[in-house]
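Action item from last meeting closed. Structure (344 res):
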């Protein structure tokens, strides 16, 4: 069998067909996973493609499907989180891996393109995106709402708003796991809660569940503070406010691990031992949680499942051309016990 000269020109399906003595239509069926092809033929074609490193023409695929295979990504700059945020960046990576395996590429949506300023929606129209992934943002941002309320398929791992398909962790279950653990295993009474900014729907939801339920678990709230940011410094400063209260907590529940890291540092600076003097529970189980000093008891969110499910649902929406389906998918969470808590 004569092989094409890979160094001299791009391989086409016609050349593959000629080499394998098959029709171009058969090659196309195997590449696009359509139609009826025998397993023997499919294996033969796939092994050949793997050997020659064939890559389908993106332009031909776009013309045929009338799609760009581009997913726009909103990672709001307004919240000053940054792409290095351990929780959201991890979800984004899993989303990216799944989408790329399905043949899609990700482009970040920005408000400025060169010297031209434009809204998120205008950017989407300019780039002709097939769909939009909202990783994190301010759920009161009118530009995000404009995209969600358009005919562009959207999905989010953070927002819970009308007309939007959302894949999010089961925050109610997560907070209730924490409260139940405190009552039954730690046997503590006095609790302080540190949440993040109200602009985050996840923080808002966790706080609301806490406020609705802590009394049911026979707990006494010493303070509940919304930190002014998402990270270490915000958690540190919020802890100082907690300690100003005349009634000191026996445990501090943090609505994210990033905040908890600041909490642990503040307690250490005040010569307060964790867990002997005050215990701490976080939320997220970021990769660093087990390396904190001491290692952090926390609620584990399944970041891989969150990202992959969001990508799957968005692509299904794009390819089946369904209207935006307002649905909330809640992914289970689990409590991970480490050394910032002390069971009795």
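Sequence:
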């Amino acid at each position: 069998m004569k092989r094409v000269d890979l160094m001299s020109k791009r391989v086409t399906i016609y050349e593959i067909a000629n080499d394998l003595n098959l029709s171009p239509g058969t090659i196309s069926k195997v590449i696009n996973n359509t139609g009826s092809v025998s397993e023997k033929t499919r294996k033969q074609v796939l092994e050949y493609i793997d050997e020659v490193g064939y890559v389908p023409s993106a332009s031909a695929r776009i013309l045929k499907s009338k799609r760009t295979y581009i997913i726009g990504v909103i990672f709001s700059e307004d919240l000053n989180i940054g792409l290095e945020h351990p929780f959201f960046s991890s979800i984004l990576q899993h989303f990216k891996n799944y989408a790329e395996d399905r043949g899609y590429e990700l482009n970040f949506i920005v408000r400025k393109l060169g010297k031209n300023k434009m809204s998120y929606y205008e950017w989407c129209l300019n780039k002709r995106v097939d769909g939009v992934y909202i990783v994190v943002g301010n759920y009161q941002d009118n530009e995000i709402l404009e995209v969600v309320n358009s005919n562009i398929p959207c999905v989010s791992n953070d927002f819970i708003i009308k007309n939007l398909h959302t894949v999010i962790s089961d925050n109610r279950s997560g907070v209730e796991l924490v409260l139940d653990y405190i009552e039954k295993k730690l046997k503590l009474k006095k609790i302080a809660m540190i949440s993040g900014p109200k602009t985050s729907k996840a923080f808002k939801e966790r706080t609301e569940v806490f406020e609705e339920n802590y009394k049911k678990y026979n707990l006494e709230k010493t303070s509940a503070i919304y930190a002014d940011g998402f990270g270490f410094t915000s958690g540190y400063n919020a802890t100082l406010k907690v300690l100003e209260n005349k009634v000191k907590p026996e445990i501090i529940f943090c609505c994210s691990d990033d905040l908890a890291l600041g909490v642990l540092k503040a307690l250490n600076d005040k010569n307060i031992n964790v867990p002997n003097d005050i215990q701490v529970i976080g939320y997220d189980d970021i990769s660093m949680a087990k390396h904190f000093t001491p290692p952090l008891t926390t609620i584990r969110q399944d970041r891989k499942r969150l990202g992959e499910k969001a990508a799957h649902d968005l692509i299904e929406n794009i390819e089946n051309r369904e209207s935006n389906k307002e649905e909330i998918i809640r992914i289970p969470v689990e409590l991970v016990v480490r050394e910032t808590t002390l069971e009795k």
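Note appended to the action item: The chain has twelve helices and 14 strands.
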